[in-house]
Protein backbone atom coordinates (compact mmCIF):
# COMPACT_ATOMS: atom_id res chain seq x y z
CA UNK A 1 0.00 0.00 0.00
CA UNK A 2 1.08 3.55 -0.68
CA UNK A 3 1.28 5.89 2.33
CA UNK A 4 -0.17 9.24 1.27
CA UNK A 5 1.35 12.60 2.16
CA UNK A 6 -1.96 13.77 3.64
CA UNK A 7 -1.34 11.44 6.59
CA UNK A 8 -0.72 13.00 10.01
CA UNK A 9 1.11 11.62 13.07
CA UNK A 10 -2.24 10.41 14.46
CA UNK A 11 -3.87 9.32 11.18
CA UNK A 12 -2.29 7.00 8.62
CA UNK A 13 -3.84 7.20 5.14
CA UNK A 14 -2.91 4.53 2.61
CA UNK A 15 -4.01 3.67 -0.90
CA UNK A 16 -4.14 0.25 -2.51
CA UNK A 17 -5.67 0.53 -5.97
CA UNK A 18 -9.31 1.55 -5.63
CA UNK A 19 -9.31 1.19 -1.81
CA UNK A 20 -8.33 3.89 0.69
CA UNK A 21 -7.43 2.67 4.19
CA UNK A 22 -7.60 5.23 7.00
CA UNK A 23 -6.08 4.20 10.34
CA UNK A 24 -6.57 6.18 13.53
CA UNK A 25 -3.04 5.96 14.90
CA UNK A 26 -2.81 6.96 18.55
CA UNK A 27 -2.69 3.57 20.25
CA UNK A 28 -1.11 4.89 23.45
CA UNK A 29 -4.43 6.70 24.06
CA UNK A 30 -6.65 3.92 22.65
CA UNK A 31 -6.91 6.03 19.48
CA UNK A 32 -8.85 8.76 21.26
CA UNK A 33 -9.63 11.68 18.97
CA UNK A 34 -7.17 14.56 18.75
CA UNK A 35 -6.98 17.60 16.48
CA UNK A 36 -4.15 15.93 14.62
CA UNK A 37 -6.32 12.86 14.02
CA UNK A 38 -9.39 14.84 12.98
CA UNK A 39 -7.38 16.87 10.46
CA UNK A 40 -6.13 13.61 8.99
CA UNK A 41 -9.64 12.15 8.86
CA UNK A 42 -11.03 15.28 7.20
CA UNK A 43 -8.20 15.16 4.66
CA UNK A 44 -8.87 11.49 3.93
CA UNK A 45 -12.58 12.01 3.29
CA UNK A 46 -11.88 14.95 0.98
CA UNK A 47 -9.31 12.88 -0.91
CA UNK A 48 -11.78 9.99 -1.27
CA UNK A 49 -14.35 12.31 -2.82
CA UNK A 50 -11.95 14.12 -5.12
CA UNK A 51 -9.88 11.19 -6.39
CA UNK A 52 -11.74 9.38 -9.20
CA UNK A 53 -9.77 6.17 -8.74
CA UNK A 54 -10.92 5.68 -5.14
CA UNK A 55 -14.12 3.64 -4.97
CA UNK A 56 -14.35 2.76 -1.28
CA UNK A 57 -12.64 3.64 2.01
CA UNK A 58 -11.93 1.60 5.14
CA UNK A 59 -11.76 3.23 8.58
CA UNK A 60 -9.95 1.34 11.33
CA UNK A 61 -7.80 1.84 14.43
CA UNK A 62 -4.21 0.91 15.16
CA UNK A 63 -3.09 -1.94 17.43
CA UNK A 64 -6.36 -3.65 18.25
CA UNK A 65 -8.51 -0.67 19.23
CA UNK A 66 -10.88 1.34 17.07
CA UNK A 67 -11.45 4.59 19.01
CA UNK A 68 -12.14 5.36 22.66
CA UNK A 69 -13.89 8.66 21.89
CA UNK A 70 -12.84 12.26 22.27
CA UNK A 71 -9.76 13.41 24.12
CA UNK A 72 -11.07 16.89 24.90
CA UNK A 73 -7.66 18.20 25.89
CA UNK A 74 -5.95 16.88 22.74
CA UNK A 75 -8.81 18.10 20.54
CA UNK A 76 -8.30 21.61 21.86
CA UNK A 77 -4.58 21.68 21.18
CA UNK A 78 -3.03 22.38 17.77
CA UNK A 79 -0.94 19.70 16.12
CA UNK A 80 2.77 19.71 16.93
CA UNK A 81 3.43 19.33 13.20
CA UNK A 82 3.63 22.78 11.50
CA UNK A 83 2.41 21.36 8.18
CA UNK A 84 -0.66 19.85 9.86
CA UNK A 85 -1.30 23.15 11.66
CA UNK A 86 -1.30 24.91 8.30
CA UNK A 87 -3.76 22.40 6.89
CA UNK A 88 -6.08 22.95 9.85
CA UNK A 89 -6.38 26.60 8.87
CA UNK A 90 -7.34 25.54 5.34
CA UNK A 91 -10.10 23.09 6.33
CA UNK A 92 -13.15 24.88 7.80
CA UNK A 93 -14.86 22.83 10.51
CA UNK A 94 -12.29 20.04 10.26
CA UNK A 95 -13.69 18.55 13.49
CA UNK A 96 -17.13 17.98 11.95
CA UNK A 97 -15.69 16.83 8.64
CA UNK A 98 -13.39 14.35 10.35
CA UNK A 99 -16.27 12.99 12.43
CA UNK A 100 -18.36 12.41 9.28
CA UNK A 101 -20.91 14.97 10.36
CA UNK A 102 -20.25 17.42 7.49
CA UNK A 103 -19.31 16.94 3.82
CA UNK A 104 -19.63 13.17 3.79
CA UNK A 105 -17.42 11.57 1.14
CA UNK A 106 -19.11 10.58 -2.10
CA UNK A 107 -17.67 7.05 -1.78
CA UNK A 108 -18.82 4.45 0.78
CA UNK A 109 -16.89 3.89 4.01
CA UNK A 110 -16.47 0.52 5.71
CA UNK A 111 -15.40 0.51 9.35
CA UNK A 112 -13.28 -2.32 10.73
CA UNK A 113 -13.60 -2.44 14.52
CA UNK A 114 -11.40 -4.23 17.04
CA UNK A 115 -11.45 -3.56 20.78
CA UNK A 116 -13.23 -0.42 21.96
CA UNK A 117 -15.40 1.74 19.69
CA UNK A 118 -17.13 3.84 22.32
CA UNK A 119 -18.53 7.37 22.57
CA UNK A 120 -16.96 9.17 19.61
CA UNK A 121 -15.82 5.78 18.31
CA UNK A 122 -19.41 4.61 17.99
CA UNK A 123 -20.35 8.00 16.54
CA UNK A 124 -17.77 7.43 13.79
CA UNK A 125 -19.19 3.95 13.21
CA UNK A 126 -22.70 5.40 12.84
CA UNK A 127 -21.32 7.74 10.16
CA UNK A 128 -20.04 4.85 8.02
CA UNK A 129 -21.95 2.76 5.49
CA UNK A 130 -20.83 -0.81 6.18
CA UNK A 131 -19.56 -2.16 9.51
CA UNK A 132 -17.37 -5.14 10.38
CA UNK A 133 -16.77 -5.78 14.08
CA UNK A 134 -14.59 -8.26 15.96
CA UNK A 135 -16.49 -10.56 18.30
CA UNK A 136 -14.99 -9.20 21.55
CA UNK A 137 -15.37 -5.53 20.55
CA UNK A 138 -17.22 -3.12 22.81
CA UNK A 139 -19.51 -0.41 21.44
CA UNK A 140 -21.58 2.25 23.17
CA UNK A 141 -22.62 5.87 23.31
CA UNK A 142 -21.58 6.83 26.84
CA UNK A 143 -22.34 10.56 26.63
CA UNK A 144 -25.65 10.67 28.54
CA UNK A 145 -24.12 8.63 31.38
CA UNK A 146 -21.57 11.44 31.76
CA UNK A 147 -24.18 14.22 31.36
CA UNK A 148 -22.80 14.97 27.90
CA UNK A 149 -24.37 14.96 24.44
CA UNK A 150 -23.37 12.92 21.33
CA UNK A 151 -22.31 15.84 19.16
CA UNK A 152 -21.21 13.60 16.29
CA UNK A 153 -24.82 13.29 15.15
CA UNK A 154 -25.90 9.97 16.67
CA UNK A 155 -28.97 11.43 18.40
CA UNK A 156 -30.30 12.10 14.90
CA UNK A 157 -28.77 9.29 12.89
CA UNK A 158 -29.13 6.27 15.15
CA UNK A 159 -32.97 6.24 15.35
CA UNK A 160 -33.00 6.44 11.53
CA UNK A 161 -30.67 3.46 11.17
CA UNK A 162 -31.97 0.94 13.72
CA UNK A 163 -35.33 0.40 15.46
CA UNK A 164 -36.32 3.29 17.71
CA UNK A 165 -36.34 1.33 20.97
CA UNK A 166 -32.84 -0.02 20.35
CA UNK A 167 -31.57 3.46 19.49
CA UNK A 168 -33.04 4.98 22.63
CA UNK A 169 -31.62 2.13 24.71
CA UNK A 170 -28.13 2.99 23.49
CA UNK A 171 -28.55 6.77 23.67
CA UNK A 172 -30.36 7.13 27.00
CA UNK A 173 -28.68 4.46 29.13
CA UNK A 174 -25.12 5.03 27.91
CA UNK A 175 -24.40 1.34 28.40
CA UNK A 176 -21.80 -0.80 26.69
CA UNK A 177 -22.93 -3.15 23.92
CA UNK A 178 -21.28 -6.35 22.70
CA UNK A 179 -20.65 -7.10 19.05
CA UNK A 180 -23.30 -9.82 19.10
CA UNK A 181 -25.89 -7.43 20.50
CA UNK A 182 -24.94 -4.75 17.98
CA UNK A 183 -25.47 -7.30 15.20
CA UNK A 184 -28.88 -8.29 16.59
CA UNK A 185 -29.91 -4.60 16.63
CA UNK A 186 -28.87 -4.13 13.02
CA UNK A 187 -26.15 -1.67 14.02
CA UNK A 188 -23.37 -3.66 12.28
CA UNK A 189 -23.18 -5.91 9.23
CA UNK A 190 -20.78 -8.65 10.29
CA UNK A 191 -19.12 -10.03 13.41
CA UNK A 192 -15.82 -11.82 12.80
CA UNK A 193 -13.18 -13.50 14.99
CA UNK A 194 -10.86 -11.16 16.88
CA UNK A 195 -8.00 -9.90 14.77
CA UNK A 196 -9.91 -10.44 11.51
CA UNK A 197 -11.95 -7.23 11.23
CA UNK A 198 -9.59 -5.43 8.86
CA UNK A 199 -9.12 -8.48 6.63
CA UNK A 200 -12.89 -8.97 6.43
CA UNK A 201 -13.39 -5.27 5.70
CA UNK A 202 -10.84 -5.49 2.87
CA UNK A 203 -12.75 -8.40 1.34
CA UNK A 204 -15.94 -6.37 1.56
CA UNK A 205 -14.16 -3.35 0.08
CA UNK A 206 -13.04 -5.41 -2.91
CA UNK A 207 -16.66 -6.45 -3.49
CA UNK A 208 -17.78 -2.81 -3.41
CA UNK A 209 -14.88 -1.72 -5.65
CA UNK A 210 -15.89 -4.36 -8.19
CA UNK A 211 -19.32 -2.77 -8.55
CA UNK A 212 -19.96 0.08 -10.96
CA UNK A 213 -18.59 3.22 -9.25
CA UNK A 214 -21.22 5.51 -10.78
CA UNK A 215 -23.98 3.22 -9.54
CA UNK A 216 -22.50 2.98 -6.03
CA UNK A 217 -22.12 6.75 -5.72
CA UNK A 218 -25.61 7.43 -7.07
CA UNK A 219 -27.16 4.97 -4.61
CA UNK A 220 -25.37 6.68 -1.70
CA UNK A 221 -26.40 10.12 -2.88
CA UNK A 222 -30.01 9.07 -3.43
CA UNK A 223 -30.30 7.90 0.17
CA UNK A 224 -28.71 11.05 1.55
CA UNK A 225 -30.57 13.51 -0.67
CA UNK A 226 -34.01 12.03 -0.02
CA UNK A 227 -33.96 11.82 3.79
CA UNK A 228 -37.21 13.26 5.10
CA UNK A 229 -38.87 13.44 1.67
CA UNK A 230 -42.23 11.97 0.80
CA UNK A 231 -41.92 8.92 -1.44
CA UNK A 232 -43.24 10.63 -4.55
CA UNK A 233 -40.65 13.42 -4.26
CA UNK A 234 -37.90 10.99 -3.34
CA UNK A 235 -38.59 8.92 -6.45
CA UNK A 236 -38.12 12.01 -8.60
CA UNK A 237 -34.67 12.51 -7.10
CA UNK A 238 -33.95 8.80 -7.56
CA UNK A 239 -34.83 9.05 -11.26
CA UNK A 240 -32.69 12.16 -11.74
CA UNK A 241 -29.68 10.36 -10.29
CA UNK A 242 -30.44 6.92 -11.70
CA UNK A 243 -31.09 7.55 -15.39
CA UNK A 244 -27.58 8.91 -16.11
CA UNK A 245 -26.16 5.74 -14.55
CA UNK A 246 -28.39 3.56 -16.74
CA UNK A 247 -27.10 5.39 -19.82
CA UNK A 248 -23.42 5.32 -18.86
CA UNK A 249 -20.57 3.51 -20.58
CA UNK A 250 -20.12 1.49 -17.39
CA UNK A 251 -23.69 0.20 -17.70
CA UNK A 252 -22.94 -0.96 -21.26
CA UNK A 253 -19.75 -2.62 -20.02
CA UNK A 254 -21.67 -4.35 -17.24
CA UNK A 255 -24.11 -5.80 -19.77
CA UNK A 256 -21.29 -6.94 -22.08
CA UNK A 257 -19.40 -8.53 -19.20
CA UNK A 258 -22.49 -10.44 -18.08
CA UNK A 259 -23.14 -11.65 -21.63
CA UNK A 260 -19.50 -12.65 -22.12
CA UNK A 261 -19.27 -14.27 -18.67
CA UNK A 262 -16.28 -12.22 -17.53
CA UNK A 263 -15.49 -9.65 -14.84
CA UNK A 264 -16.51 -6.11 -15.77
CA UNK A 265 -13.85 -3.45 -16.31
CA UNK A 266 -15.56 -0.29 -15.05
CA UNK A 267 -13.98 3.10 -15.74
CA UNK A 268 -16.41 5.44 -13.96
CA UNK A 269 -17.82 6.83 -17.21
What does this structure look like?
- The protein folds into 2 domains: 2-209, 2-enoyl-CoA Hydratase, Chain A, domain 1, CATH 3.90.226.10; 213-260.
- It is built from 12 helices and 10 strands.
- It has helices spanning 35-50, 72-75, 82-90, 94-98, 120-126, 154-161, 164-173, 179-185, 197-209, 213-225, 231-246, 249-260, and strands at 2-3, 11-16, 19-24, 56-61, 109-113, 116-118, 130-134, 138-140, 177-178, 190-192.
- The strands form 2 sheets. The protein has a 7-stranded mixed sheet with strand order 1-2-3-4-5-7-10, with helices on both faces. A 3-stranded mixed sheet has the order 6-8-9.
- A hairpin with a 2-residue loop joins strand 2 (11-16) and strand 3 (19-24).
- Helix 10 packs antiparallel against helix 11.
List the helices and strands and how they pair.
Elements: E1 2-3, E2 11-16, E3 19-24, H1 35-50, E4 56-61, H2 72-75, H3 82-90, H4 94-98, E5 109-113, E6 116-118, H5 120-126, E7 130-134, E8 138-140, H6 154-161, H7 164-173, E9 177-178, H8 179-185, E10 190-192, H9 197-209, H10 213-225, H11 231-246, H12 249-260
Parallel strand pairs: 3-4, 4-5, 5-7, 6-8, 7-10
Antiparallel strand pairs: 1-2, 2-3, 8-9
Helix pairs in contact: 6-7, 10-11
